[in-house]
Amino acid sequence: AWAARALGVHCTVVMPATASKSKAAASAGYGAEVILHGTSAEAFVKASALAAEHGYTLIPPFDHPDVMCGAGTVGLEIMKQVREVDVVVVPIGGGGLLAGVASAVKQLNPKVTVVGVEPDGAAAMHKSLAAGHPVRLDKLDTIADGLAAPFAGELTYPVIRDIADGVVLVTDDEIAAAMSLILTRGKLLPEPAGAAATAALLAGKIPQSAGKRVVAILSGGNVDLDRLKTLI
User: Fold this and answer.
1) Any bridge partners for residue 14, and if so which?
2) Does 28 or 224 have the greater pLDDT score?
3) Quick one: DSSP state of residue 167?
4) Which residues does residue 119 pair with via DSSP β-bridges, in sequence order?
5) How far does CA 230 lie from the centroid of its chain?
């Protein structure tokens, strides 16, 4: 939305009806037309329909080479700033961030462990890896709306399968506990999706991290303040 405003072009953002209010408000504040529609899966269908109807350019949130490459710059920054990193922990929605970060990190140092983290109520990538192909979820149930992708990407799945070192699951309670710790000790305010990687570490879900130098990516700060008290 910010880039569209800078370029002077129209931008329509389609989000599920349950999307964070602050996320929708921020997009509208940048000048986007925000449409709240149905579930996550229904929002994807709505966006595709609008693109076909109006001739819009559809920008996928994760399943596109350019999106993965953009996410990969996070991996490049990590490798530049933390040269002796051993483990990188990355939250997963549709897999664009993990696919990009894993690709960048592994090219620079194949010995670095890169692990993905999903909410157990939106475990599309975890289930895809178990099934051997991308799967779609019939139901999503997590406080981490930023990770609630209804399917694993057709492009992101094989990259994660071949390059990353696995995907672990965290509960909503573990995510909320991580949010509280990051806020009170780290003085940072992540949304639930942004706290997922730290949640996996705190819950002991990543044994490769013991005694190692670890980076946990905090990928989002759009948390509704009226929900914050309940979440933490």
Assistant:
1) 35
2) 28
3) E
4) 170
5) 22
